[in-house]
Amino acid sequence: MTATALSRPDGAAPADPPAGPAVRLHDVSFGYGRDPVVHGLDLRVEPGEVLALLGPNGAGKSTTIGLLLGLLTPAAGRVSLFGLGPEQAVRRGLVAAMLQENQLLPRATVGELLHFTRGLYREPMSLDEVAGLADVGDLLGRTTDGLSGGQAQRVRFALAVVGRPSLLVLDEPTAALDVRARREFWRAIDGYAAHGRAVLFASHHLQEVDEHAGRVVMLAAGRIVADGSPAQIRRTVADRTVAVDVTRDGPDEAMLRTLPGVASATVAAGRAELRCTDADAAVTALAERGLLRNIEVGAGSLEDAFLSITEVR
Ligand SMILES: Nc1ncnc2c1ncn2[C@@H]1O[C@H](COP(=O)(O)OP(=O)(O)OP(=O)(O)O)[C@@H](O)[C@H]1O
Q1: What stretch(es) of the chain map to CATH 3.30.70?
Q2: pLDDT > 90 in the chain, percent
């Protein structure tokens, strides 16, 4: 399935999407064989939301994306996008996707591909606009075969957004990108989302999720196990970290682990890191023992929350 194939509209895309949620999954279940892979998914995404689908390998993120794009048919439940069936919504140009396996048409130039794709929409972006947004201006004369992974990803993004879809779906969009390319890519997506469009993306990069998603839906074994803003998800783990300097003859890990409120402790290069279930109690205990040297207290990270939420399933 290619971005262009998925985005193939019938030229009748309305300037404004119909009212209603961008995505509505109602009690959706699906299995590739006999065993269900996603179970009873309920999800509603409003226009303007930037939602990250998080979950360990095999949690069902790509399957969920396939279901909401109409590439897979639910065994039970209903999927609608802007109140329409997925196929209808795709045909009306309301939805476009960048999937992991998107192949670019070989031998065509980037300019030709964009020109062709623009022609499928009623109100596409101008070539200049899309080239600026996706940073592909310097690639227009290049054939797709010789592009680097990062360049090809920018082109896929350009093809996905050129028709101004109201919902953009991205499956691990930055997996092949280096740090700089990832930052540029997110600048483009943030710019796109700023116009009230919905963006739904799956990712394993917790930092980018934290920085760019307004909402995180966490999947584990095909079920939604957390749903909230990154800050809300982070707060679901009570664990906080406390770090202090320790001298060579100071406390060792075994002693630190016995302190009240401390769940685990590591000591390396003169610094002790404590993971705490009760940071206040741990700090008090350290103070009583005269161990408050260069103290740092950190909130739980999205990564901590991810591990904690998914490891108990
Ligand atoms: N085409 C397929 N045929 C059979 N089983 C599949 C197929 N695609 C996925 N699965 C299985 O469905 C489950 C969910 O897979 P899915 O790709 O949706 O997970 P994911 O969360 O996207 O994983 P990852 O982070 O590794 O991409 C896994 O157990 C996977 O092995």
Answers
A1: 237-311
A2: 58
